[in-house]
Amino acid sequence: MVKAKEAKKAKTSTKTFHNYIGGEWTKSASGESFENLNPADTTDVIGRFPASNEEDVNRAVEAAKNAATKWRRTPAPKRAEILFRLGEILRANKDRFTREMTREMGKVTKEAGGDVQEAIDCTYYTAGEGRRLHGFTTPAEMPNKFAMCVRQPVGICGLITPFNFPMAIPSWKLIPALVCGNTVVLKSGEDVPLSALNLVKSCEEAGIPKGVVNLVNGHGAEVGAPLVGHKDVRLISFTGSTDTGRNIAEQCAQTNKIVSLEMGGKNAIIVMDDADVENAVEGSLWGAFGTSGQRCTASSRLVVHRKVYKKFCEKLVERVKQLKVGNGLEAKTEVGPVINQAAMEKILGYIEIGQKEDKAKLACGGNRLTRGDYAKGYFIEPTVFTDVAPTMRIGQEEIFGPVTSVIPFSTLDEAIDIVNNVPYGLSSAIYTQDVNQAFYAMQELYTGICYVNSATIGAEVHLPFGGTKATGNGHREAGTQVLDIFTEWKSLYVDYSGKLQRAQIDLVEI
Ligand code: UN1
Question: Is residue 40 assigned to a domain?
């Protein structure tokens, strides 16, 4: 009885959050909402968020449309000034945003702090573009004629982001979209709505005009799909699974939208026989189990030279067994939970597949943790498979969890083939002391990111981020390259000769 009463009290005191549309914090059109739960302790309800639908999306797009002209005409350096203010606000609130992120997403606070920091870095770096946004001039082929090229905003952008980097990934899309003069509708991962809300609320505090940034909470089918299908949305920028991305691209083709996709990975670290094995083990631990392996860039394959294979595996397994799994809010925790029930089942499913697959050996881990407080969350033991053949499913498919596969090899060319022969091409790494091998690998690895003597994770915001093959569709986020997503080129010709000059026809005699 007392228990029921307590539960009721907890329910009524649950905080309610809203959508942000046209500068107003509003309920969903349907009045429906969903709970945001802590994946480390599902009895901890972070809040109720609007379960939005097409009507909310339409309102948000309308608001973005109404704000578009004024924002586009605001000089880029002025747009950027507001973004610098946003950077200050994010910095001032970093500790709170970090704790709230860990609570809703599960990653340990050090990493959540890194996520918020990445948003801060992205904001400062990209805001600097307000005084660049470089175009170019080039000579015209006629006398007394001027040729130049400028960037123009694309219009209304729909941004769809995943759970694993709850603030960094929205910022990678939002900040460049804004500095380039676009207005946006953001739909963040439904498991992590608070971090996106913190970012958007900070935009409001920074003074970004009403309607320029809109936030619609909810699920893919109810919010993502109408956003992708909306005729007034010019661009969709999506980070998530390859299957969803492919589907979005097909939908976008119907309305000729620009579409930028950042999807799966099956990243690998090569460990050569001359590598500093201790360092390679530390890198592998961080790359494979950081964020509980829930990174597109996770080191889910460790491709190890036979000469150091035994030593590497022993050291790795010894270290993995020591990793402290737990609630990310506790200082001693090294590996947090995975995001939700479905993710946990998928990961455990892959562990089962790995155990059934020929030859692969489960060297450590392999189970859900259920003792004591673990039972309240989605905890999986850090898991290592050794003797994995490159063609096995666990060696080919994205698992997105704390599971890595060790694959032996004999020559560098063989290792490079193993790394390249997967559907994805996001990140790769090589540990070696030999500069020739390092450069050869940098040349041959067909991935968008490649590390030498470091794991596959940890991209910095001023370099392009993205991958080849099923990882993307040719675009790059971050760096200055992201500007090519959020602007369209306009070629301008000015003829000041005072007469008709026909290109390609009125050839200048020399
Ligand atoms: C992702 O996993 O989608 O490079 C992004 C990294 C991070 C970003 C990862 N800075 O691992």
Answer: no
Q: How far apart are CA 431 and CA 508, in angstroms?
A: 58
Atom of ligand 1 nearest to the CA of 239: 3
| Protein residue whose Cα sits closest to atom 11 of ligand 1 | 457
* Structural domains of the chain, count: 2
Contact 177, 212 (CB under 8 A): no
397 is annotated as an active-site residue: no
Alpha-carbon gap, residue 439 to 47, rounded angstroms: 50
Around ligand 1, the residues with Cβ closer than 6 Å are 118, 164-165, 239, 295-297, 457-459
Environment class of 377 (CB within 10 Å of its CB; exposed 0-12, middle 13-18, buried 19+): buried
Contact 325, 107 (CB under 8 A): no
**Residues 38, 46 contacting (CB under 8 angstroms):** yes
Residues in the chain: 510
Q: Which domain holds residue 396?
A: 268-452
Q: The whole model's pTM is what?
A: 0.96
CATH code at position 405: 3.40.309.10
CA distances from 267 to 137, 283, 317, 427, 471 (A): 40, 13, 19, 5, 11
Average pLDDT of the residues of the chain: 96
Q: Residues 81-118: pLDDT tens digits? A: 999 999 999 999 999 999 999 999 999 999 999 999 99
User: pLDDT tens for residues 115-144?
Assistant: 999 999 999 999 999 999 999 999 999 999
The residue whose CB lies within 8 Å of the most ligand 1 atoms, and thus the one to mutate among 465, 471, 482, is 465
> What stretches of 370-495 show up as alpha helix (H) in DSSP?
393-396, 412-420, 435-444, 483-486
How close is the Cα of 104 to the center of ligand 1, in Å? 18
Coil, strand or helix at 501: coil
Q: Are 307 and 439 in the same domain?
A: yes
Rounded CA gap, 169 and 160, in Å? 9
Give which of 233, 236, 257 is closest to 63, Cα–Cα: 233
